[in-house]
Specification:
mainly alpha, 0% strand, single chain
């Protein structure tokens, strides 16, 4: 039979991608709502939320990276029709995620203040960042469990629930933020601390939703989710052989991003405030890129599990075409209405004007990032997570070197600094494209 017989159609790719996209939109609105609210409080809070938010994301990516590896294996087992194996992966992964989250929370409570004091030069931003983190850090346990539920539903291509869960997350986060940041409904105005508490409460509520939804779903019995097994070190070790590389890779990826924001903070309080706004604007396009790229990774894993490696490259080409078709519209809107886009996140006139050049530079990076992310996730879907780690380290090394040169040595304007995204994307695109064309991934067992 021909390759096309086993390939996923544009319709199928869209059906899997759309709920993921809606879910990412909702989740992006969580971070956006924090910025939108804090952008009405002041530059200090806006800058502190940027660094504290990225610092939290660094810690989150350890659990998220583990779930990515688990999701790749789930996708492979789904292609092989090994449904009981999927349930084992979910439960052993969840046990591990909860355990590691508690360890990270304890270490963070002890060390975060010291770590951030080493890299943040403004005492005002440092104090505000700690006000945020001392509450936000507790949400890691909920965030890690959510990541495992997402890995299960992505790996089995039953992504519709991601839309529902994300609606719960974003609506509750907006409601809690409105009450706690500004002090409505009889609550005291807690500012940046209220943003952290609101996000934590929203993620706890989302875990409750996932538990109820999964318990009521008949498929929970098919996969053995209704009967939690005992902890099994041997099964966990098999998951870690794949997941350890995605954990480390994601940690370093976001840690390098944290370094960018540290450099931006050293350029001044306005520079870090601008960077936080641009970071949130970038999320609008990034969630589109990510939705299609992650879908591509899931479908690649399923295809290989079904024994159709020859259909992988045609699939990724279709994913790329859909991704670019939508993203080019977003790029056009950003260039036509840049001030209107920035005003979503702050109403401070000088900050709006100062943020536009950086936002436009960042927007141009989408032209490379779309292809880079799609191919990167395609490599991850093959199951060769060690190779993914190596490719990512090379790209991050190039990115970090560029950031040091432009931001620390030359101390360039913050808009110039945002060209670092394009440099990283170009390196990733070339490296991952070369690896996929080599076909050295064919036959990889996980």
């Amino acid at each position: 039979m021909s390759t096309a017989a086993f390939n996923y159609s544009y319709k199928h790719i869209w059906q899997v991608s759309f709920p993921v996209l809606i879910g990412l939109v909702m989740e992006q609105l969580v971070g956006m709502s924090d910025t939108i609210f804090l952008g009405r409080v002041g530059e200090i809070e806006l800058g502190a939320a940027a660094i504290a938010g990225v610092y939290y994301t660094v810690l989150f990516t350890l659990g998220f990276g583990f779930s990515i590896g688990a999701g790749i294996i789930i996708g492979r087992r789904n292609g092989e029709k090994d449904f009981k194996g999927i349930g084992d992966i979910f439960w052993q992964g969840t046990y591990f995620s909860i355990a590691i989250s508690l360890i990270i929370i304890a270490l963070s409570l002890l060390l975060s203040s010291w770590i951030l004091s080493l890299v943040i030069s403004s005492p005002h931003i440092l104090a505000a960042a700690m006000d945020y983190l001392k509450w936000r850090i507790f949400s890691l346990v909920f965030a890690y469990v959510i990541a495992m539920f997402r890995a299960f539903y992505m790996g089995t291509t039953k992504t519709r629930v991601l839309t529902y869960s994300s609606l719960v997350l974003v609506l509750s986060n907006i409601g809690f933020n409105w009450v706690l940041i500004f002090g409505h409904l009889g609550m005291p105005a807690m500012g940046i601390s209220g943003a952290a508490i609101g996000s934590t409460m929203a993620e706890a509520l989302t875990v409750i939703f996932y538990i109820i939804y999964t318990s009521c779903n008949r498929e929970s019995r098919i996969y053995g989710l209704n009967k939690p097994p005992r902890f099994d070190w041997a099964k966990l070790r098999a998951i870690l052989k794949v997941s350890i590389w995605t954990m480390v890779q994601n940690f370093f990826s976001v840690f390098t991003w944290l370094i960018f924001f540290v450099f931006a903070e050293h350029l001044g309080e306005e520079a870090i405030a601008i960077s936080n706004i641009v970071r949130n604007v970038s999320g609008i396009g990034w969630m589109i890129v990510t939705a299609f790229a992650v879908t591509g990774s899931t479908l690649v894993s399923n295809l290989i599990g079904e024994g159709h490696s020859e259909a992988v490259i045609p699939l990724l080409k279709r994913v790329l075409k859909l991704n670019y078709a939508i993203l080019l519209v977003v790029i056009a809107v950003f260039f036509l209405f840049p001030h209107a886009v920035v005003r979503i996140f702050t109403n401070i006139p000088g900050l709006v004007e100062a943020s536009v050049p950086s936002m436009l530079v960042m927007t141009l990076s989408y032209l490379l990032s779309t292809g880079a992310m799609t191919l990167f996730q395609g490599v991850a879907g093959t199951g060769n997570t060690r190779k993914v780690f190596v490719l990512e380290m090379v790209s991050l090394g190039i990115y970090l070197g560029y950031c040091i040169l432009v931001m620390d040595v030359l101390k360039a304007d913050i808009a110039v600094c945002w060209t670092a995204d394009s440099v990283y994307a170009l390196a990733t695109l070339l490296l991952c494209g070369s690896y996929l064309r080599s076909r050295r991934w064919v036959g990889k067992k996980i």
